[in-house]
Amino acid sequence: MTIQSLEEYLRLKIDLLRDCNIIRDTRGHSRIPCFVLEKPAKLQPPSADAAVKRSQPPRNATKFFMKIYPTDRVQDLQNIASIYNEAKVPTAQIVQLGYLSEIDQTYCIYEYIEGKTLRELLKQNSADCLERIGYLTGTELGKFRKITVPENDFLSNFHQKLLQLLHNAHLQKRDYNKTHSVKLPRVNLQRLERSLWHLKTVIAHTELNFTHGDINLYNIIFHYQTPYFIDTDGSGISLRSLDFRGNCWWGWTGNNTEREQAVYRGIYRGYFADQIPNSLHHELGFAIIYEFLLRLERYANVDEQTYYSFLRWHDILERTKYFENYQFDWF
Description:
The protein is of the alpha+beta class.
């Protein structure tokens, strides 16, 4: 189904969309369809589900955000919304949610959060101010540490996932270098694998938490000095460090390195209430290697992305000596 035909189908099936201007949103890196919805100002939005209400939400009566997910995710998204509500972590409230059995997809319409992302604030503020902004973000995120995590199979399933990712990385490197005259930038996968398993023994002793899933500078919007977490559909039980795998994209190179480091330093300080554990150095190293392996899997059939992944991580891994006893000196 093309995007245009999907829009026409959704407009027929969802009453809220019939008077809306539907605009495809391509600002992020999402692989699922995302839309901004605009309604005439005179119309009022539907009432929100009581399970995800909060005090004084930043309502916008004329603008919403919609994502289309494969398969039936209604219960899953409701559960995520309930946990955010239980932890009192600010996020976009669900306005309408439903499963479209004919096309086996779920639509979720969220309130539209007006404000600026951390990425936008990065350009406008000093390092000291950005660290305070990061601290507020980390403090809100740290509320998840109080959520009770039930018995689960995360660690055993995660071990199998790592084995699959490592196998895929070796295959991709071999196949790419066999079929291209320009070889991939050098990444010693044997050394990376040894470091990954060593770091895993360290982080295996850290607590499992409910996590957002991808804390990066695009997924937090500040609205009247409150950080709101968006793109929450990947939230769930995980190792806390995996929330911060986005740190591989920020704080390494470029003109904004100091300010990017300040934001993340503030997030870590706030998350741990100014008691950053020594293990976080190992946890972040693990998360950054994990992001490399995930990215190879995500873009397995896109040669230019495979090359870019090896190029990016070649620099990081050489600089950190594959995170063997590496310390982040900017904490």
